[in-house]
Amino acid sequence: MAQIDELRARAGGVCEICGAAGDLAAVEVPPSGEEALLCAICRGEAEAPSGHWRCLEGAMWSGVPAVQVLVHRRLSGMDEPWAREALEGMMLDAATLAWAETGKPLAGIEHRDANGALLAQGDTVVLIKDLQVKGAGFTAKRGTAVRGISLVTENAAQIEGRVEGQRIVILTEFVKKK
């Protein structure tokens, strides 16, 4: 992991996606291990206010490949005309585009919640059952919202998300889309 001071210096002390100055943390961008400095909203740990993701239109021009990958992945998961237009306008080199597209579900794999609703990268889900989190020593309570989920690319029955500050794998049969 890069030193947080190096990330702060590179980012100018603000979120590398939206420019917010508060609650910043380093986020690893899989599978490379490179990092970006993000606020709680851009990390998916807080509810995004209306219009927040329009910041992606500016962040897509970042010279930092890790930020470009995060922007590409977020835009790919949005079903808004402006997001599709921004995604089409992104100029990524071949290596960065390949990196951005890793982590996307394999063709034919669909992640569905307990009710059969299709899940997408970045969705918010709610736990429908108390879940004992192995190795972390806590129980994720029913009704807990998990924001900004990630899809496990090779397994349609699993998603990843943050609960109580821990990144955990959750079975899709125990969540419903919010």
From TrEMBL:
Record-linked Gene3D superfamilies: SH3 Domains (2.30.30.40)
TM annotation in the entry: none
InterPro entries reported in the protein's UniProt record: PhnaA_N_proteobac, YjdM_C
Alphabetical list of Pfam families matching this protein: YjdM
PhnA protein N-terminal proteobacterial domain residues: 6-47
Domain of life of the source: Bacteria
Cleaved signal peptide residues: none
Protein name (database record): PhnA protein
Source species of the chain: Frigidibacter albus
